[in-house]
Amino acid sequence: MILDLILTKTDDGYTAEVPSLKGCECWSHTEDEALDKILELTEFYLHRTSKEKMKFDIARKEKNKTIYKLIFDK
């Protein structure tokens, strides 16, 4: 399964969201912390354990957004 993960730089930090999972979004002061939080939240939404590996890779960058592809087995 492949999902989009969108990381947006704002004036006061970073927001991260997985648009296909309603309500799966978070905010943080740093980019790395936002990515860690959204991956943990995605695991929760999908009822997965951290033992089940998820990979993410940068798909493209825009002005203040970075779009990642979140890849894992269903």
Notable characteristics:
74 residues, alpha+beta, Double Stranded RNA Binding Domain, 5-stranded antiparallel sheet, 1 helix, globular
Walk me through this protein's architecture.
The protein is α+β, with helices and mostly antiparallel strands. It has one domain (2-71): Double Stranded RNA Binding Domain. It is 20% helix and 43% strand. It contains one helix and five strands. Strands 3-2-1-5-4 form a five-stranded antiparallel β-sheet, with helices on one face. The longest helix is centred in the middle third of the chain and has 15 residues, at 31-45. The chain is globular, with a radius of gyration of 12 Å. The model has no long low-confidence stretch (mean pLDDT 91).
- In DSSP terms (H or I, runs of 4 or more residues), the helix count works out at 1
Proportion of β residues? 35-45%
Low-confidence stretches: none
Arrangement of strands in the largest sheet? 3-2-1-5-4
**Would you list the SSEs in sequence order as H and E?**
EEEHEE
Coarse morphology: globular
Largest sheet: 5 strands, antiparallel
Give the mean pLDDT: 91
